């Protein structure tokens, strides 16, 4: 379904949009706006997936016994060895 709406743009945005249509990057201004919205949707999905992955990793690590934790000293030693810092 297509919905007709009215949008307002700054001069800068309008010039850029029209230039992209003139260059042939998009058939119409509407298709350019639709592509931008699709990109926003995809960005939001990726952001949500990343946040969920981090949340899951944190939850899993919170279930570890304290004896399984790595000390800060061990972590820094390992990191420094990887970047060759003494």
% residues in beta strands: under 5%
Helix amount: 55-70%
Number of helices: 3
Rounded mean pLDDT score: 92
By secondary-structure content and strand pairing, the structural class works out as: mainly alpha
Kindly report how far apart the N and C termini lie: 63 Å
Computed CA radius of gyration, to the nearest angstrom: 24 Å
Q: How would you describe the shape?
A: elongated
Q: Which spans have pLDDT < 50 for at least 5 consecutive residues?
A: none
H/E element order:
HHH
How many DSSP-defined strands?
A: 0
Summarize the main sheet.
Answer: none
Descriptive account of the structure:
- The structure is a single chain.
- The model has no long low-confidence stretch (mean pLDDT 92).
- This protein has helices at 11-23, 29-62, 72-82.
- It starts with 10 loop residues before the first helix and ends with a helix.
- The chain has a domain at 32-86.
- The chain is an all-alpha fold.
- 67% of the residues lie in helices and 0% in strands.
- The chain has 3 helices and no strands.
- It is elongated and about 60 Å long.
Please summarize what this structure is.
With 86 residues, this protein is mainly alpha-helical.
